[in-house]
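Table S5 (text form). Sequence records supplied for joint modeling of the four-component complex.
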Amino acid sequence: MKQPSPKFAALSASDIEELDHIELLFFAYKEFTADADRILEGIGFGRAHHRVLFFVNRKPGLIVAELLDILGITKQSLARVLKQLIEAGYIDQEAGSHDRRQRHLYPTKAGRELILNLSLPQSRRIKAALKQSSKAQDETIKNFLRQMTDIVPDR
Amino acid sequence: MKQPSPKFAALSASDIEELDHIELLFFAYKEFTADADRILEGIGFGRAHHRVLFFVNRKPGLIVAELLDILGITKQSLARVLKQLIEAGYIDQEAGSHDRRQRHLYPTKAGRELILNLSLPQSRRIKAALKQSSKAQDETIKNFLRQMTDIVPDR
DNA sequence: ACTGATATGTCAGCCTTGTTGACTTATTTT
DNA sequence: AAAATAAGTCAACAAGGCTGACATATCAGT
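The corresponding structure-token record, covering 310 residues in total, follows.
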């Protein structure tokens, strides 16, 4: 017979069993990003540059609108870092052949080298964390992460 | 007979098998934080407030130095958000009984309610992502995340 | 051919949250 | 009594989000 508060329902800690998972995810992601941050700070780039380069490398030739959609940021935010990546010679732009308004983005050789070096410590961390896991367990983990992005937790 | 470049070793994409994992982790964490962000923006707080409240709730009575260590930020950064949380009545401070220089932090009733409401959508997302998993698989996932924070990927 | 929609780029300013450096106060330790 | 420690504070700066407004090029439909 609890009365819910106007803004928030009355809850007790026992309602949530996943606090361990939440905490683990926080620390895991923190260490994960720190790997690349150490390299980035040496070359005057930040995480935003890393993400852009990562996805341009993952899907060479993707257009700006697609990249915006993947990153979930505004074009003004993207412009700032994309411009620097282009000027520094890590990304090339090319007008679309069908639609010449579109800008297709490609990593340069230097861009590919940089993103690989940024990914390497992250890769090593993941590989080590998977070390004791079987192939089936790897699928379990990937499936969990995949599900995490698909779920809509409203209600 | 590749010559490594002075700054970065020469690599090809085939050297990294964990790009899928990296991408999945990025999207999973993005959605995970977005859950709470939607609530936070309604009450004028940000992620920094969330993290502080989360850990104060997880370990009631922890001192400022411990919190700084957990969060991995400077005391000036913490001060800004901690002050707001105290003034808004979500966290209480108490001088230590042994060492009265120390400030022990406790969530208030309102603080406990808020963090539970922030954690709820995240919990639901995780619970749903684990839905098809067995208990053993849950352990696999938690173990993976735990390993992720322990590994030192240098070399 | 004109007109409106679309893709991108840009300027300006704001906010949050991280940083460094310098300094204060209270308290404990030596 | 002096030094070390825990915490708090002020100021300034940087990264990377955001909004709003507007410019340019190109495409698509009538």
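Note: Residues 46-48, 73-74, 76-77, 80-81, 99-102 of chain B lie near DNA strand C (CB under 10 Å from a C1').
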